[in-house]
């Protein structure tokens, strides 16, 4: 289906052209004065300069031409030259009936030319628990992926594990100190390494901070860790076997935590997967004359003449020949291009890393790691802050583990549900888990990704206002009405969405009609917050209609059936939207 705004614009553009004016002046937008009209066109104001006449002379002609057009209930020319438009209720109802005929997509056309789009999000380090700092990347990345998938693209999410570098050497060194007789440390050992890891996830999470602390106080310990890192990166078999254990134990725990957030990845690749591509990549950069030595380090210049700020060279190798994050990220681009040839790669990371990714993207383009048409997008997100405006912390001032945050909000939601309703504990706990996830995800995604925001548990878990629980409560209310109707009646033959009988019904219908355009904009602008804004407006419009309309008491059978069809469409629109945001609605609350 064509977006309703495009359909309206096409009629207004035609009216401008038929009256001798350039089509560019016929653009229609949503009204910024909904008390006066539903859509508006201000083109006559700009056209007046070109055609050397008063703006209202143009708007009067266009309005006169559009009178009688079945699309519009009214077209008014308002001085000094605005066009105020209201849709014909029957035309609007027919548009919604077409949406209703496509229950899976509501008339939102999938893209004509699907792209392969990779999303780099998550970015956890192995051997460390997820903390609140990992929340935004996971939630935003998952939603961007789901929106792209809905629009028909091939979306591939990669967790991009931090599984390389000194942290691995630290873990190996600490393990060796604790249990030096493990076969992994015997260089003469040639047999099969054990299938079971010599540690649990709990032990692993304690080993790393212990080792990190020791390395800061003991220079010899740090040297041993650096040597272990070097040996791992140069193929020592026992250390490679330990790395495999670390990955297996960590990834299983990470998958459990991400599952609780309803976040998933198509790929569980890490920095270590990029290592085999580094030597050839570095050699090619040298051979092609891009990489050169600067103070012992291998670098590639990435500054451009248009830069207003200093952009330092992209370092490829340190002076001792060791690789860096830059090296790994560039090599990751190499394997992604080799294995998937994506049309676009989106990096969902902290916005403070913008300069770093500017260097990496420019280096990848300059050295030919990507095709000229391959898009590299930096989706930088702001900080999640506490009520004090500072980065979110525990009461003790530490960084909160993500599973503790989720658990706390689950408990908060359960208490609210238990206080207000009589429910079995098992059902209450399950409902609380669903609603808590909506509170967390909507609380984050309703903000523009690039902006910092305050993580306010009390506000996010409220059933009123612009919150996830409010959206879910609206969906559950609609489900309840539909169940009640279905228990008492059967939809009569020929039941369909009818032209609005009231202003509140038309307002709900107008919100529904924006679905198609909103989804397109949310994808093109990589903007999940647009989905949140849409469902908040839609939920408000429905609740206003609900309070103004006696749906179950309506005496006219066909009018009542029309209301029910409208409710079904509203529920589907809300459910599709919360699905792309990454949460769902319970059956009751």
Structural description of this entry:
This protein has 589 residues and is an alpha/beta fold. Among the domains are: 4-87, 2-Layer Sandwich (Gyrase A, domain 2); 166-260, no CATH class; 402-460; 468-581, Isoleucyl-tRNA Synthetase, Domain 1, CATH 1.10.730. It has 21 helices and 13 strands. The protein has helices at 4-18, 43-51, 55-66, 89-100, 135-150, 166-178, 201-217, 219-233, 237-260, 271-274, 278-287, 325-339, 354-366, 402-420, 425-445, 457-460, 468-488, 503-513, 515-524, 528-548, 557-581; strands spanning 29-30, 39-41, 72-78, 82-87, 116-120, 154-158, 291-294, 297-300, 314-317, 344-350, 375-381, 384-385, 453-454. The strands form four sheets. A four-stranded antiparallel beta sheet has the order 1-2-4-3. A four-stranded parallel beta sheet has the order 6-5-10-11, with helices on both faces. A hairpin with a 3-residue loop joins strand 3 and strand 4. Helix 2 crosses helix 3 (55-66), helix 6 (166-178) crosses helix 8 (219-233) and helix 7 (201-217) packs across helix 8. The chain starts with a helix and ends in an 8-residue tail after the last helix. The model has no long low-confidence stretch (mean pLDDT 95).
């Amino acid at each position: 289906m064509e977006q309703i705004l495009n359909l309206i614009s096409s009629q207004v553009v035609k009216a401008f052209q038929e009256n001798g004016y350039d089509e560019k002046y016929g653009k229609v937008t949503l009204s910024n004065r909904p008390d006066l009209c539903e859509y508006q066109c201000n083109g006559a104001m700009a056209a007046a300069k070109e055609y050397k006449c008063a703006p209202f002379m143009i708007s009067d002609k266009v309005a006169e031409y559009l009178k009688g057009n079945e699309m519009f209930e009214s077209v008014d020319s308002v001085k000094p030259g605005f066009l105020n438009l209201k849709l014909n209720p029957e035309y609007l109802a027919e548009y919604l009936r077409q949406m209703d005929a496509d229950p899976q997509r509501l008339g939102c056309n999938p893209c004509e030319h699907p792209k392969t789009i990779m999303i780099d999000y998550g970015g956890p380090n192995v051997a460390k628990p997820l903390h609140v700092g990992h929340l935004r990347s996971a939630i935003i990345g998952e939603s961007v992926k789901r929106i792209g998938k809905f629009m028909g693209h091939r979306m591939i999410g990669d967790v991009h594990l931090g599984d390389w570098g000194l942290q691995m050497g630290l873990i190996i060194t600490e393990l060796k100190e604790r249990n030096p007789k493990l076969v992994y440390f015997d260089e003469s050992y040639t047999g099969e390494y054990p299938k079971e890891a010599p540690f649990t996830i709990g032990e692993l999470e304690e080993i790393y901070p212990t080792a990190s602390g020791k390395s800061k106080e003991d220079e010899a310990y740090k040297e041993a860790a650096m040597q272990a890192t070097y040996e791992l990166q140069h193929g020592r078999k026992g250390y490679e076997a330990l790395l495999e254990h670390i990955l297996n134990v960590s990834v299983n725990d990470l998958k459990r935590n991400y599952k609780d957030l309803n976040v998933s990845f198509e790929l569980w690749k890490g920095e270590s997967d990029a290592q085999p591509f580094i030597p050839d990549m570095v050699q090619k950069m040298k051979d092609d004359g891009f990489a050169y030595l600067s103070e012992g380090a291998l670098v590639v210049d990435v500054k451009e003449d248009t830069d207003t700020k200093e952009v330092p060279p992209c370092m490829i190798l340190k002076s001792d020949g060791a690789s860096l994050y830059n090296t790994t990220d560039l090599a990751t681009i190499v394997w992604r291009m080799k294995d998937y040839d994506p049309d676009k790669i989106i990096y969902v990371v902290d916005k403070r890393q913008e300069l770093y990714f500017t260097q990496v993207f420019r280096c990848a383009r300059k050295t030919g790691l990507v095709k000229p048409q391959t898009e590299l997008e930096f989706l930088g997100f702001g900080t999640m802050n506490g009520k004090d405006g500072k980065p979110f912390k525990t009461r003790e001032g530490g960084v909160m583990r993500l599973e503790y945050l989720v658990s706390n909000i689950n408990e908060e939601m359960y208490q609210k549900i238990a206080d207000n309703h009589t429910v079995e504990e098992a059902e209450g706990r399950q409902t609380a888990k669903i609603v808590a996830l909506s509170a967390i995800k909507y609380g984050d995604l309703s903000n523009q990704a690039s902006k910092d925001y305050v993580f306010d548990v009390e506000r996010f878990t409220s059933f009123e206002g612009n919150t996830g629980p409010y959206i879910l409560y609206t969906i559950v209310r609609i489900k309840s009405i539909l169940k009640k109707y279905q228990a008492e009646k059967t939809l009569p033959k020929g039941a369909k969405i009818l032209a609005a009988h009231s202003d509140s019904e038309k307002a709900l219908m107008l919100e529904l009609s924006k679905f198609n355009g909103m989804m397109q904009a949310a994808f093109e602008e990589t903007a999940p917050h647009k989905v949140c804004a849409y469902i908040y407006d839609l939920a408000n419009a429905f609740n206003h209609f609900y309070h103004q309309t006696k749906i179950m008491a309506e005496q006219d059978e066909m009018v009542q059936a029309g209301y029910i069809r409208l409710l079904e469409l509203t529920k589907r629109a809300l459910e599709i939207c919360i699905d792309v945001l990454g949460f769902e609605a319970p059956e009751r609350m």
